[in-house]
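Now for my pick.
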Amino acid sequence: MYLDELFGVDAKLYPAPCPKRGEAMKWIVWYSVTLAEAGARWSASLPPGNEGTVEPGSKNWVPPEQRSASFAEKAKADLAVCFAILEGGLEGQIFLLGDYSLADTHL
C-alpha cells in the first residue's frame, strides 16, 4: 500500500486520501489476510504430489493431521464465502472501485 500511495496516486491508479482510498485499503487487506489465508489452508491440506500443494521441506509445511479431506473441505467452504464477498463487491461493475485501480491488481 505504501508503493500504491507513493506512485499510484499521480498515475491515477490509487485514490488520493478520501473514502475511496479506505475502500481500496479494505480490499487489499481483506485479500492479504482473509482470502489468502483460506487459499493457503486449502493448498496446505492437499496431499503431497498434487498440483498446488505445499511440499515437505517448505517453510509452509503443515503436519499430516492437517492434510485431510475435512480440512480441505473447510478451506474450500471458506474460499467459497470469500469469492461470494468478492462477487458482491464487484456487483454491477468490472473493478472494485468502479475504475481500474491497484486494489484490483492486489486481488
User: Anything to note?
Assistant: The chain is about 55% helix and 0% strand. The mean pLDDT is 88. Helices lie at 2-8, 19-45, 69-90, 102-106.
